[in-house]
Amino acid sequence: MHLDELINAGLSENEAKVYLAALELGETSVYRLAKKSGVKRTTTYLAVETLKEKGLMSAYQSNSVTVCYAENPKKLTLVLEEKKKALDKIMPELLAFNNLIDKKPKIKYFEGRDSYKEVFMDILKYSNSETLITFNENFWNFDDFFVSYFIPKRKEKKIWARALFHDNAVFRDLKKREQELFLQCKLVPGDKFKVGIEMIIYGNNKVGFVSYEEEMAIIIESQKIHDTQKSFFETIWGLLPESRV
């Protein structure tokens, strides 16, 4: 029987060392157990007590000396079975807690000049999907990351995009490149549609927010937030006519 196997069975390292020493020595004193196991005597006393509680060791007094001895190793099986029964008993409650955690939004926050790449690299994980973008008019001029990497990869992975742009000369010109950029655009008229950040709805349950000026990005993984933002996007999209340039 090896130390690692006893540890894997649920004993602490000190308990395992003391138990192995007790198996080898038979009936013995705590002093000899400590010497044989290499565990400090005070720690050996504690290990003996916890092993007694687990039913793996017994002790009795003889002439004012505590005599210890290891119980049959087969009792380890009983210990594990008792642990399993205890775990099975509380499993429904543990699963209920886990379900609550799963329902909470998972949020990842990124800072720095290139933080926006975290969102767009995550989008590329979802091949054969659609991405919905509310475009930030302050960042209309694609940098090399988009031109040389992201857009070619997005096209390669067949990730279609639909985008809402503020209706102005810059975006009317950009709309002419729809086929090249593998996207469909609609232009939103009026001065009220001013988007200072970029919002990307993607995957099955993710929403990304990018603020280029503040050099930060957020990825939220939440079915409710994803579906709500998608509903807003689809409502605006449905109200707009097909843009012509």
How large is the count of helical segments? 10
Strand % is 15-25%
Mean pLDDT: 83
How much helicity do the residues have? 40-55%
Secondary structure topology:
Blueprint: H1 3-8, H2 13-25, E1 28-29, H3 30-37, H4 41-53, E2 57-62, E3 65-70, H5 75-103, E4 106-111, H6 116-123, E5 130-134, H7 144-156, E6 160-166, H8 169-175, H9 178-181, E7 183-188, E8 198-202, E9 206-211, E10 216-221, H10 223-239
Parallel strand pairs: 5-6, 6-7
Antiparallel strand pairs: 1-3, 2-3, 4-10, 5-8, 8-9, 9-10
Description:
Helices cover 48% and strands 22% of the residues. The strands form two sheets. It has a seven-stranded mixed sheet with strand order 4-10-9-8-5-6-7, with helices on both faces. A three-stranded antiparallel sheet has the order 1-3-2. It has two domains: 3-75, Winged helix-like DNA-binding domain superfamily/Winged helix DNA-binding domain (Arc Repressor Mutant, subunit A); 106-239, Endonuclease, Chain A. It contains ten helices and ten strands. It is rod-shaped, with a radius of gyration of 32 Å. It has helices at residues 3-8, 13-25, 30-37, 41-53, 75-103, 116-123, 144-156, 169-175, 178-181, 223-239, and strands at 28-29, 57-62, 65-70, 106-111, 130-134, 160-166, 183-188, 198-202, 206-211, 216-221. A hairpin with a 3-residue loop joins β8 and β9. The N and C termini lie far apart (79 Å). It is an alpha+beta fold and 245 residues long.
